[in-house]
Amino acid sequence: MWFFFPKAFMPNWAVRQRLRGPFPLSARALRGRRRERNGRRMQDLAGKPLVVLLSGGLDSMVCAGLAREAGARIVALTIDYNQRHRVELESAARIAAAVGADEHIVLPLDLRRFGGSALTDAIAVPKDGVGEDIPVTYVPARNLIFLSLTLGLAEARRAADIVIGVNALDYSGYPDCRPEFIAGFEALARLATRDGDQGVAFRIHAPLQYMSKADIAAEAARLGIDAGMSWSCYDPTPDGLHCGLCDSCRLRSKGFAEAGLTDPTRYAVKPPA
């Protein structure tokens, strides 16, 4: 049975199903289609300034690698929002150096003052698997806030292109990872800025939007980037290991396994298959 929802009110499970489609392609055909779509989106960037929203995670690392491959002049922006998993800031610094970023800005923004999330408040990180509902690791309006800051930096650096590593297939169900959000923000960027008012067509690149976590792991390998530099875990152990049980650890482990790649991650507990 198929259900139809207006795009703006589509629940997360329906978004996943709509993106996958009613007639699944073979894994090879699907990877080819995604690579073709991503290639179209990351063209015409050679020598141009481009702002990468770089968290230090696997997805943003691959985005930075794609920007390097496209020949862009990378300005990396990392938001230190006083997150529980602050170790990802160290990963972001390593990645920025590895891709040869022209500039890496770490911007402090203490979202613990807001709270409302297991990543910014005294709320336990769920360890019972990826569900259909939006989990408590959702940080209120995080990608909206972060993209607004990224847009401000892009305008200051006279860059028309922004890259963000959102994903709408293998993800935790956050509403600010959906294609509709990215398209909406791109339109807003042209309305809300001086450069947009003067005719600059800002482009929000989301090259991983339709890729599975296995595709993303494989893309990291293709780009020749050490995936071990990246950090995914929401609840690191005191001795600096991935917990192995949070949503992010499970999705990361699943991606490497399905891609047939060795997972370089050090887990405290082996993620369930």
Strand order of the largest sheet: 3-2-1-4-5
The percent range for strand residues is: 5-15%
CATH superfamily placement? HUPs
Q: What is the CATH fold-level name? A: Rossmann fold
Features:
Rossmann fold; alpha/beta; 5 strands; 9 helices; five-stranded parallel sheet
Describe this structure in words.
This protein has 273 residues and is of the alpha/beta class. The chain has one domain: HUPs (Rossmann fold). Helix content is 38%, strand content 9%. It is built from nine helices and five strands; from the N terminus they run ααβαβαβαβααβαα. The protein has helices spanning 12-20, 27-41, 58-69, 87-98, 142-156, 179-192, 194-197, 213-223, 247-259, and strands at 49-53, 73-80, 103-108, 161-163, 203-205. Strands 3-2-1-4-5 form a five-stranded parallel beta sheet, with helices on both faces. α8 packs across α9 (247-259). The longest helix is centred in the N-terminal third of the chain and has 15 residues, at 27-41.
Structure summary:
The protein has 273 residues and is of the alpha/beta class.
Please write out the topology.
Blueprint: H1 12-20, H2 27-41, E1 49-53, H3 58-69, E2 73-80, H4 87-98, E3 103-108, H5 142-156, E4 161-163, H6 179-192, H7 194-197, E5 203-205, H8 213-223, H9 247-259
Parallel strand pairs: 1-2, 1-4, 2-3, 4-5
Helix pairs in contact: 3-8, 8-9
